[in-house]
Structure formats: structure tokens, C-alpha cells
Amino acid sequence: MSNITVCARFRPLNSKEKLNGDADSVCIRCIDSETFVFKDDKDEELAFSFDRVFYEESKQDDVYQFIALPIVRDAVNAINGTIITYGQTGAGKTYSMEGPGILECDEQKQGLLPRVVKGLFDSLSPSDEEVTFSIKLSMVP
Ligand SMILES: Nc1ncnc2c1ncn2[C@@H]1O[C@H](COP(=O)(O)OP(=O)(O)OP(=O)(O)O)[C@@H](O)[C@H]1O
């Protein structure tokens, strides 16, 4: 795998979209876990491939395991990593990064941020007394 991993994630339709009948106009068709087909307004189909495509039913933990866990493991060995979400408003960036609520939410729905913090502390080996870990956290709102 290259140094940069690029994934696509589709969120489920919300209740308003379902009421509007938007399910009929979904223009994405799954091919496999790396490729989807996008049907444009001229009904032309274009295939797009990524390192991984997370479809509507994907779990927060699937996203963590694939994207963030390798970065957490590297971070413990002093290798920098960055996770960036990109997409239009309402696409699910905050949900993927934080979950439905950063302070309280169902554990299964926790996003990358709380999982990374937990993963980081879980990865530190307390048995090796020769090694000192220093963790600094900064956030850009
Ligand atoms: N994978 C998902 N499963 C269930 N609900 C989701 C998912 N992704 C997003 N949502 C819901 O969709 C709505 C919009 O998501 P979110 O706020 O994360 O979008 P955003 O990309 O951060 O938007 P903005 O750029 O406007 O801040 C929220 O109500 C969120 O809970």
C-alpha cells in the first residue's frame, strides 16, 4: 500500500431523504470493496476506484481498522500520520471523525477521534521501562 490511503464513504439516507423518495435517485452502484459506479445526469456510468469504499452499511469500526489503526501503530514508532475528511456539507465528515456526539454516544458509533485516542494508549507498552512516550494533542476547529 502507498503512503497515502484514499477511501470513499457513503452515508445512509436520512429520514427526510427517505420521505422525499431520494432512494430512487441514488446514483451510486457498488462493484466491490474498492470500486463503485457513478451514474451521471446523462445516464453514463463512470467507475471510480479507491483503496477502500465504505458503503452505507459500513461500521465505524471498519473505518477505524482500515484507515486509522495502521496510523496509530506507526505513531507509536514515531512515524507521523494524518487523517483528513473531505466532502460536501452533510456528507458525514464529522460523523466519521467524531461520531454522532463526541461526549456521549453508543460505543459502536464512536468515530475515529475517540478510537484513535484509545488505540494509542492501548498500543503503548508499559512493560518496556527503557522507553518513554510523550503524547501531545492539538486540534484545529
Ligand atoms: N455513516 C453514517 N451513518 C449514520 N448517520 C450518518 C453517517 N454519516 C453521517 N451521518 C449523519 O448525517 C448527518 C450529516 O453528517 P455530518 O454532520 O457528519 O456531515 P458533515 O460532512 O460533517 O457536514 P458539515 O460539513 O456541514 O459539517 C448527521 O446527522 C450524521 O449523524
Automatic annotation (TrEMBL):
This is Serine/threonine-protein kinase KIN2. Gene3D superfamilies: Kinesin motor domain. PANTHER family: CENTROMERE PROTEIN E, KINESIN-LIKE PROTEIN. Pfam families: Kinesin. Belongs to the TRAFAC class myosin-kinesin ATPase superfamily. Kinesin family. PROSITE patterns: KINESIN_MOTOR_2. The keyword Acetylation does not apply. The gene is KIN1_3. ATP binds at residues 87-94. Keywords: ATP-binding, Kinase, Motor protein, Nucleotide-binding, Transferase. Residues 3-141 form the Kinesin motor domain. GO terms for molecular function: kinase activity.
